[in-house]
Every structure is written in structure tokens, then in C-alpha cells.
Amino acid sequence: MSGKFISDLLQSITERGRELLGKARREDATSPANLARLAGDLLTRRGEATGVALAEEVLEAYGQLSTEGRRDFLLQLAHDFGPDRAALDKAIEIYRKDTSDVNALRLHEAAEPRRQELIRRLNQAPGGTAALVHMREDLFRHERERPELKALDADFRHLFSSWFNRGFLVLRKIDWNTPANILEKIIRYEAVHAIQNWDDLRRRIEPSDRRCFAFFHPRLGDEPLIFVEVALTQEIPEAIAPLLASEQRTIKGTAATTAVFYSISNCQSGLRGISFGNFLIKQVVEELRREWPKLSTFVTLSPVPDFVRWLDGELASEASLVPADLRDALNDLKGGSQAPPPEHLRKPLVAAAALYFTQAKTSGQQPRDSVARFHLGNGARLERINWHGDVSKKGLTQAYGLMVNYLYELDDIEANHEAFADRGEIVTSSDVRQLLKRKGGLRPADRASPEAATS
Predict the structure, then answer these.
(1) Is residue 449's pLDDT more than 50?
(2) I want to staple 262 with a disulfide (CB 3.0 to 4.6 A). Which of 58, 145, 301, 415 is the partner?
(3) pTM
(4) Residue 100 φ/ψ, nearest 5 degrees
């Protein structure tokens, strides 16, 4: 009721604003330049009703632009809606003469790009939040070719981080009684293990040992932001196929000891870089423990989306992280597999994966693997690398079938997070550390021929 009341109130304000603006006042905003002038007009408005109506007009006009028109409008925002240079210079001069807190605040206000205030005002329009999330999706399409858009993206990211913080998010359990329009979105947004049809979805959310939870935001209605699928088991799984099988043995909740997070999907690409997953996992753990007090293990079964690309590069590089004899053993693997790798490649491939998780870094010295960055940053431990964990076409193409478990040891989460955040330390299990001891490559026992290994 409260959401509908707010929506009706906004609509009433907008309609009143349109009356005040007058129908004859509507400007032709079908070009990026005219739309930018309309946006400038919005920044000068002081009346709330006319401001809301004009914000809606700007967003409607933006939605009618072509792809190129939207790009040009975004570029105008980046170029022409930065800080007021004269006001900023004056604030800098005043602050240099008197470094008081008041002058520091005025300097901060003068340094804020006008784009941020424009985005705030656009957000007041009915449906404004969703429209701005889609606008940032448009920005992503052009950011690589037009790096000047990065400043505009920084403004979006700054504001979205506040608007979508944990205090505004609502956790909802997704089950077979959830409205069909939301269930359709769960099917559409599943990004890790595709949901084939309604029966497949039902197998994932209806049994007593399956759970699905999603975060929602009041301004986005029934659009989920992120969701997680959970399986309750009696042990840490090594492969995804048994969890997704059409024929499954249901485990009674009282017998389950392990909660497996086997799929986490972000739903809104326009919110890329705005972190919800850490809050989601922590709150889901609380919900699960409340329902099943005997649960003692919380673990993921995660994909390794960039491993094939990394390993191909290492096999072709003279300055490789992978030792020579591991490269020799793996040299026939190129660009993914059409079939599960043979058993004699298990040890060299898993050893190479251990190097990937612990030593392959981005230019910012973060783990190269995006899934690893997420879970390690949330305080998980790199627990186990699973051979033939996902032998689907996707799993073979991106990781030669490997999957990995990240363990959330509740008593160690904060310490693990601090170690990763402060020192870049990747906390690993003894099994993973054992793999990393092979500094010289394969141990003699691992150098058996393929025939000997399979005999």
C-alpha cells in the first residue's frame, strides 16, 4: 500500500507540473543538443511539481533517441555538465586563505559535477530510478571507445552506491508461490546455469532442500537486483550435475549439514560495480541458520569463467607463471574442450588452476578471476578445486570442466576479509596449499605417461 501511495503521489505531482509547464511549452527534444538544453533547464528549476514533470519529459525524450543519439547526449553530459569552473576556482581561493571546515564544505560542493544534481533530479520522475539504471547500461556500450564517459560513470556509481545501499534493499524468498512475472525474470536473468524451462525452475525452488533468495529495491518494483540459488546437502559437492539433475533425492532439512550456494546472478547490468552479493550471502546465511540450526557448513560451487583464456595465454608465453613441465603436459589443450579432459591431465590441470587462483593478478594486483575476487573479498576461503565439476559445453569452454568451492567459515570470515583487503592475502585450504608446493612443476610421481595413468 505504501509503495502504491508514493507512486500515486508522484504521478499527481507530475500531472500538476505538466499543467504548470503548459502544453505549448514542450520543447522539441528529439536531438541530443535540444535534450541537453532541456536538461540544463531542469537544473535551474526550483518548483517541485514543474521539476518532476520536466524530469519525466527529459527521460521520455531520451528513450526516443537512437543509439547514436543517446551516445551523443551522454557525451554532452560528460563535456558540459561538470563542475562550475568559476565557482570552483573561487572556492579554492577562499579555502587557501582560510582552511575552515565551512570553507572545506563549500569547496566540496563547488567541486561536485552538475551531472550529479541532474541525475538526482531525474530520479524524482516516476520510474526515474529504473530509467537511470538503463541509461548507465547505454553508457557501458560506448565507454571503451569514448573514455571521456568514465567521469559520467563515476557520477552514476557514486549516487547508485548510496541509493542501493543495504538499508534500502529487501530480501525476498523465491518459491513456487512467487508471482509468475518474477519467476519469469529469474529464468531470464539466471547467468550461471541456464534454466531450461518451468519444470527446471520448479526443481530448483520447490523441493524442501532447495532455496532461492533475491534482493529487491522499492523503486524498482518487481525487478530483482541479484539472486542466489541454494541446495541443502550432507557434504560439499564436487560437481554441479547432481544438483541440477531432473531426478533428485530430496534431503530432509533436519538431515542437511551443508548449504551450497551454486548460482549467484546479478540481474541489472546498469548496476555493475555496485556490490550487493556480500550482503546477500550474509543475510541468506542468517535466514538458513534460523530455519535449520544444524547447518554448519556454508560453501559455494562456483564456475571459473576466465581460466581457459588465461591458460591459453600462459601456454604461449615465455614469461609464464606455469612451470615448463606443466606447460608440456597441457600443451594440447587450446581454447577449451569439446569433451571432458582425460584423466591423465587431472593433476597438471588442477595444479595450473591453483596457480591461476593464487598468482594470476589484474593490473591492480587483484585476483584475475572475478568470482574469486567476489568471494575472497567477502571473507571466504579457497577450499577445493574440482576436476570435472561442470562438463557442460559452457563449463568445458570456459574452464576445461573445473569448478571451485569457496568455504564461508563463519568464525573466520572477518579475519579472512581483513587479510585479503589489507594485505592481498588469499586464504586457502591445506589441499590447495599442497598443490602449490610443486614449485618445480610436476613431481616425479605425476609424470606418468597417459597410458600408465589410465591403466
Answers:
(1) no
(2) 301
(3) 0.85
(4) -75, 165
